[in-house]
Amino acid sequence: MHSFFLFFFIYLIGDYMYLYTGGKTGGHIMPLIRLIKESDAEAIYVGQKGNLEEKLCKSNDILFLGIEHNKNKILMGLKGYRYLLGELKNKRIDAIISTGGYVSLACILFGIKNKIPLFLIEENVVLGAVNKFFYPFCKKVFLAFELEKNKNKMLLTGLPIREYIKRPVYNKYDILVIGGSLGSKPLCLIADELSKKYKVCLVAGRYYKDFKNNSNLDVLEYTEDIYSYMAGSKIIIARAGASTAQEIFMMNKPFICIPSMKTKGNHQYHNAKFLSEKKACFLVLENQAAGDIDRLINNILLNPQISINMSDSQNKLYKSNAAKKILTEIEETINGI
Q1: Which candidate in 195, 212, 253, 281 could, as Cys together with 257 as Cys, close a disulfide (CB 3.0–4.6 Å)?
Q2: What's the per-residue H, E or C state across the chain?
Q3: Are 313 and 249 spatial neighbours (Cβ–Cβ below 8 Å)?
Q4: In this structure, are residues 179 and 188 in contact, taking their beta carbons and an 8 Å threshold?
Q5: In this structure, are residues 160 and 135 in contact, taking their beta carbons and an 8 Å threshold?
Q6: How many CB atoms lie within 10 A of CB 169?
Q7: Which of 7, 29, 24 has the alpha carbon at shortest distance from 16?
Q8: CB under 8 Å to 239, separation ≥6 — which residues?
Q9: Cα(2)–Cα(7) distance, rounded to whole angstroms?
Q10: How far, in Å, CA of 123 to CA of 100, rounded?
Q11: For 175, phi and psi rounded to 5 degrees?
Q12: Within 13 Å of residue 40, how many CA atoms lie on the same side as its CB?
């Protein structure tokens, strides 16, 4: 009983320290940043030096420890592990929260060595390689989507996404094209072609300088106000990243999904196939886009019932308050409640 009140007191004053890790893409990074913002615990983010996660941590005033890049992922993990031994010496870490990616190896190894509770977040419909390998060592796996073979440690919580703050809609568009955190040249080319017929907004990422505004095309490198652009668009075309999909579902927008076929384990295709089967999006393969996109756009614009039906399907997949659910499970698990 005494220990329960001690843990409860610690919870009230927020005297926890959580280590977060995951990198390279926004799908790995944004859920962790949302958790950090929702949590009262102190936070340290471990990622790859010079990568997107460092930039986003800096803009959000999050303490960041950067691991040097190495083409040999195993060697990168081992060197990163030694780096963390020095940087985290004498620090009490209460939990490690990982979204996967090879940059998380160092942090997870550090946690296993020091017997720190490990929690995994799986944003895709199939377990990633790192999450699959370290599953036996974790306390819980938090799922964005229900997997076919859920095990005891797996919980369907939904995926933490950027906080929705209602802002003015800047412009009205027929189509919003989102290339993902790393950008997508094929989607940029599709947006450029569609602008010959429709009013289009393109979030181009690293390809921003390769495409120019015209009377029908607004090109952005990145925006913190993605929800405003979603709200002002009739249709959204995007990759099959889980974070982007969840944001679209929250906004209830018709979604044409063109998955990248070059992702690890082809997870974007599996995501898109799953969402399409649930009628939450239209799946279009990259090599078929030229013939299918215009037909789909016309159908959606001319048949309002398509948007209504898709919105209903998206509502069944979207889980609200994912960050709070995950943080509560973590706190209760480390406190033995």
Answers
A1: 281
A2: CHHHHHHHHHHHHCCCEEEEECCCCHHHHHHHHHHHHHCCCEEEEEEECCCHHHHHHHHCCCEEEEECCCCCHHHHHHHHHHHHHHHCCCCCCCEEEECCCCCHHHHHHHHHHCCCCEEEEECCCCCCHHHHHHHHHCCEEEECCCCCCCCCCEEECCCCCCCCCCCCCCCCEEEEEECCCCCCHHHHHHHHHHCCCCCEEEECHHHHHHCCCECCEEEECCCCCHHHHHHCEEEEEECCCHHHHHHHHHHCCCEEECCCCCCHHHHHHHHHHHHHHCCCCEECCHHHHHHHHHHHHHHHHHCHHHHHHHHHHHHHHCCCCHHHHHHHHHHHHHCCC
A3: no
A4: yes
A5: no
A6: 15
A7: 7
A8: 178, 179, 180, 184, 187, 257, 258, 259, 260, 268
A9: 9
A10: 9
A11: -140, 135
A12: 9
120 Cβ contact partners less than 8 Å away, ≥ 6 residues apart: 98, 99, 100, 131, 134, 135, 138, 140, 141, 142
Residue showing tokens 């998380």 = 104
Q: Which amino acid is at 289?
A: A
Tokens of 194: 């569609």
Q: Which two tokens stand for residue 68?
A: 């040097």
Lookup: tokens for 15 = 């005297």
Residues 6+ apart with CB under 8 A from 107: 19, 21, 46, 80, 84, 96, 98
